[in-house]
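[job 0412] stage=fold_complex status=start
inputs:
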Amino acid sequence: KAGVTQTPRYLIKTRGQQVTLSCSPISGHRSVSWYQQTPGQGLQFLFEYFSETQRNKGNFPGRFSGRQFSNSRSEMNVSTLELGDSALYLCASSFTSMHWHYGYTFGSGTRLTVV
Amino acid sequence: ILNVEQSPQSLHVQEGDSTNFTCSFPSSNFYALHWYRWETAKSPEALFVMTLNGDEKKKGRISATLNTKEGYSYLYIKGSQPEDSATYLCALNAGGTSYGKLTFGQGTILTVHP
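[job 0412] stage=fold_complex status=done
writing structure:
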């Protein structure tokens, strides 16, 4: 079956712009989580969506937002981009957010560069 | 704030060596412990999900153990091969309202030399 698909793979934006990243989970997976990876911080949790509802949010400013559609696809948006937002953004999907022993499947990520 | 620590940060071994890494986590906040292997330019690959104290999991030459009472997990690789070179990440599910949230360690970078 198809894995988790993230688009685009690479993105270059200018400071002050906004960006939207997309994540299509594995068919049947209803939970989608987003992570940011920067060299100094490792993988940091952004937020999680389940059945179109944000269930959990990490410690990121309000410029970072997301949503989930009825087909479980998710988007995350970053407004007023800053240089420090340059990172690899990963999404992960799971069958359900309540049964963590199922594990998570990650996409290949979107590499965002802010110049 | 949960703190998940991995050691060592990096490891260089020769092909055929066996090796192991450690993941430490707060024992008071535990629901599940995940291990991932992350090769450059690929997506993190799930190795194990461990939930019970004393759990031992095995996948080929890779195995893992879990001690939730003292808050640590070990990952072992027997007879390392160059294709085992990757970053190995552990991540904690803390339960409660931590829906969908994994708290990752910084990872152990393994390099296996032919």
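[job 0412] summary: Chain B has a mean pLDDT of 93.
[job 0412] exit 0
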